[in-house]
Amino acid sequence: MLDGDPELVPAVVVQKFAWESADHFERDEYEFAWRRLGYRVVQELERLPDDKLTAGLRWARWPSWPEAERTALRALITDLIVRVAGDQERWWQLDELIQAAAQLDQDMTPWLRLVDDFQDALVAQLAESYSMYYTHSDGPVLTWMTWDDPGGPIVDWLLSPTLRDRLSGLDDRNAQRALELIDLMVELSIR
Question: pTM here?
């Protein structure tokens, strides 16, 4: 079924395929399927954001794909994140989408840079959400991020003077709450 027309693969099969990486597929088979179905995985991310959907990219040998294919998939994911950022009703989906995107490079940094381009209210909401994770628990649940210190770039972003200046200039409840929580992170030496 996975080697036929990608448009005919049912959504539930695309999800299952993306979730099951090393458990059910030989590496060559999985890479080939990902390269054919990557755009369908992005469609599933839009329909039901889930950072686990891209967790198998390393098993699919993502870094060795041809540059044109990597660029195309990155563009689809970036476009999805930008569209969701433009729709306040969908802002709650951004954390999952950003974490899914971070699987491309095994790094949150480029995606947090993208966040910096979003409107102030959204940046404040994400800053409040992330800072709450760090002051009330061990940080965001980054289950599918298997590289060293996946949350480090989030902490760096939260503690950056640029973000502090931006939030300080906002008359917004989320921004003020984020600043309070970031101050608490500094006080607790969360790094």
Answer: 0.91
